[in-house]
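Subject: for your reference before the review

Hello V.,

The reviewers asked for a structural picture of the protein, and I figured it would be easier to keep everything in one thread rather than splitting it across files. Below is the amino acid sequence we used in the manuscript, unchanged from the supplementary table.
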Amino acid sequence: MWPLPADRDRPYPDRVSVQTGVSTRVLRPRAQILAQARIVVAALTLPIFTAMLWYAIPRGSWPRVVIAFGFVLLLYAAAVMLLRSVSISIERDAIVERGFFARSRVPLKRVATAIVLDVYRGPSTETTRQLFLVDTSGELLLRLRGEFWSADDIDTVAAAVDVPVRRRLDPVTAVSLRREMPELLYWFERWPWVGALAAAGGIAALALLLIGLMSPTLLLP
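And here is what came back from the structure prediction:
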């Protein structure tokens, strides 16, 4: 494990007093995530479906393309609704995480240590902050990643739990993080090749779907 100095008394912005129970602080993911998602979805889908329609209209298979595009729009709308529901609530005696598909409640008395560090984003020099809340046995209770939460939000949660904070002074690479703290990472971070295979399988499945939609032997009556 890295030498992570404790800085329990370090002042954090917008510190939340969870002991008084006066109010609940609710944190939301970065606002620009939705805007970035719209740009990515538009860039990936509009050129593809435009080309598919151009190819399918003369062959009479355009209804399937329209149906597929509508299905993609429904998936996107569902993802937006799930993202809007994501939040972190700082309560008097617990931190409540409402994720995409589940809701978890972390009692403050279970939190033994908060680990805060900055991780390089791929080969660039840019970094994102990450927070890990662990119990006395080292089990991960809550993780906040800078891709979704601002640095102020991460520091606010770290201060709210009122436990010793171990902070890595220098940024680390994803490789170092995987080597030193694998038990605190997601499965696709521990085994990136598995994630790559899953992505390749998804792309292959999408390609087969597009081929099927444009196949003249599968025309709608």
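For the response letter, the relevant points are probably these. The mean pLDDT is 80. Helices lie at 32-56, 62-85, 151-160, 174-180, 187-190, 192-214.

Happy to draft the paragraph if you're swamped.

O.
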